[in-house]
Amino acid sequence: MNLITRRQNKQQETTTVRVGDVIIGGPQLVVVAGPCAIESYEQLLSTALEIQRLGATMLRGGAYKPRTSPYSFRGKREGGLEMLAQIRELTGLPVVTEVMDARDIERVGEVADMFQIGSRNMQNYTLLTEIGKTKHPVLLKRGLAATIEEWIFAAEYIMSEGNDQVVLCERGIRTFETYTRNTVDITAIPALKELTHLPVFLDPSHGTGRWSLVKPVALAGIAAGADGLMIEVHPQPEIALSDGDQSLNFEHFAELMESVGPVAKAVGRELIFA
Ligand code: PEP
Ligand code: MN
Prior knowledge:
By secondary structure, the chain is of the alpha/beta class.
């Protein structure tokens, strides 16, 4: 079968995906950063300004949060989207946020420059099909226990509807290991580069579940050819309403950004500000 995602030959360039002024898949490495969940206007604004100052070019933040327990904080939903819209306007940063339900596509799409399809929804074929009918760029996370092939087919669901703006994001998979939240499959990055022409991101925050492991794994991802990183950053991770253990504070994010530049350069990529 001739898959739309399939790399035709070794020489084929990575497809570029444009999100506002940001180009994903080109020589420029793209860092997307922000809180796991939007908690308050001040939290999101202070994070947005800081990550922008440090060289991130896109803001992340969940308004609709898929949580393992229904009793955990599930996001500020509409209120979160409004904050995201205001801060997008104020900073000029393009934003990526998760859409969990096909019924929310229109509303989320009014604010989001890029849709995030979360790990838990990677095989929600109704959602993938409806997202495929939009023109919005999509960050498609790898399912918790998805093979590379299943993940590629998920991208095909979107692309076969006409939306070719898909970025794949490795975020770790379930293995027998319990020390880390997930096991980051670094191999998936070059494997996807061989198999597909799509840009590939790495999310070492969900991949490791531990903030102290985020920087080394992020650097490994860049060395392996990732086109960008998605990093969770919080002004005070110890009081975060979700994923505090894996979130970098501003100081640690600054340290990460300092290290990213030289590694990017070593593999022929660049990072603005670095
Ligand atoms: C997230 O990015 O906050 C998230 C929930 O990610 P994942 O779907 O990879 O678990
Ligand atoms: Mn998270």
